[in-house]
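To the team - 5-amino-5-deoxy-1-O-phosphono-D-mannitol complex, inputs and output below.
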Amino acid sequence: MCGIVGIISTQSVTKRILTSLKRLEYRGYDSAGISAIKNRKIERCRAAGKLSNLEQALVKQPISGSIGIGHTRWATHGVPSIENAHPHVSGQVAVVHNGIIENYQQLKEELANDGVTMQTETDTEVVAHLANAYLQAGMQPKEMMQALLSKIQGAFALLIMMAQHPDTLLAARKYSPLAIAYGDDEMFLGSDALALAHLSRKISYFEDGDWAIITKDEAKIFNLKNEIVERPSKITDASNKTPDKGKYAHYMEKEINEQPEVIGYTFASYCSPTTGKITLPKFKFCPSELPKLTIVAAGTSFYAGMVAKYWFENLARIPTEVDIASEFRYRNPVLIKNGAALFISQSGESLDTLMAQRYAKENGQNIISLVNVPESTIARESDTVLKTLAGPEISVASTKAFTTQLVTLLTMAVHWGELRGVLSDREAKKITDNLANLPSLLARVLSDDLDWIGASSELALSQDVIYLGRGVNFPIALEGALKLKEISYIHAEGYAAGEMKHGPIALLERGVPVVMVAPHDEWFEKTSSNLKEALARGARVVLLSDDKGIEKLHEAATWIFRMPRVHPILTPILYSLPVQLLAYHTAKEKGTEIDQPRNLAKSVTVE
Ligand code: M6R
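Output:
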């Protein structure tokens, strides 16, 4: 999703803006641009495609100045092109924006009536024209911002630069994230701490409705009511190191391989691997009396929530509902008084999830979040925060964030199961012992000489791939299909294995690959019947199973991936690995852009 950066300093800013934009690349984008003010004139350089194109453009058309703004654009309104790339300029104003100006059509009409001609297809351009018109009409920057913010509707993180006021940068936030970092004689603004941590580690976050007038020496922050406010600063935990792929070809490959380690860290942060004693952060309610748990998330994090529903219901007997974040608040959900709502998000910034969280808070729920970015908006607005210790996840396709979410959710379900008297100490210890041993099993799968490339080179030739799983592994079938779609662009669908015969089986014809997530668990016999049904219709089966399952089904499968035997409750974590590896190798075989797939953004900050 769009990333924004701004610097006001006494030194040249262009190179540093470019470095910050590189640190925001992981969010996903399709064009980029930078503006700076020199001699009270706005200079601008933009390019479609990757930042390397912008870098080349800057060589031909260098720009410099001690105040500047930069942007990576993920297209919403208007195709990815140089014209639509930010910054947008009107007269003496340059603007970068993350979000959507929802009333832009109406504003465009008003501006057209005043004789303004639009140069782009974007919603953002109206902001530049309005700001410029207000300044032309004689307003000072503060007055102009107040007029502008009362006019525009929607979601935004905005940075505005004015040629006639080269010592002032303006900023505003509504829904889309924005942070400020404090330097010596300079100030830095950016979409997140990662964009800023290499410039200064002292960071404050804007709250919704905040806007600011920033000079190199100070930031005056105002709230929605235009009152001056203080936003506490903290020393960010975000790394100031520029992420790198190490020995791996892609971030996704690196992150898949980091899983044994980060799962170990995450688990150890909640449970002593020796005693099995689980310590969770404090909740505002008593888990043993909780009437209902509502889990809300998007994409892969939603699938983690689906797995967790099995765990919370089975291990802790808590009535649990799971909702897609973008649907939740629009269906008027029944939220029980004193219930708890758990929001799962790698980035902690997905706007759908954040808006659902605010809705749940307004409706009296105790808010828990499970995030990988502890300084994120979702974390900051929660009553209790659980952290995954996955480290920065750069690849757009989520891998290690997902499995660390699962480990945390299972640990939580086991603990609540004990508190609610559903699990005995011995039963709980059995699961935590298995969890402690999981990193070594994952490491074994990663080091085993399994023929991922053989199966993937066939999957790469397919039009459609079906993923099937049952029970606690049904969401892993969904996650496997999502991973394949995201990075290889092959049409893939995940189904509950037993649901196949109720419709999707019509898709099967000779040669269609069916990936079966089939550990030898309590549902295995039924899953194997579903596999036979697919086989009878000419499907070619990729079997993910263990010794016992493979013994029974080896003749039915074209490709077999042998997983270590593990406690059945843990299988979704272990079986995430083969579905990730299949997707990764298939995309590699196809030569698609694995870490930044087309059309996708890492942090989705629009609804
Ligand atoms: O940061 P979040 O966990 O809130 O993101 C939610 C989804 O956008 C995310 O999981 C998305 O589906 C990933 N690209 C999956 O690989």
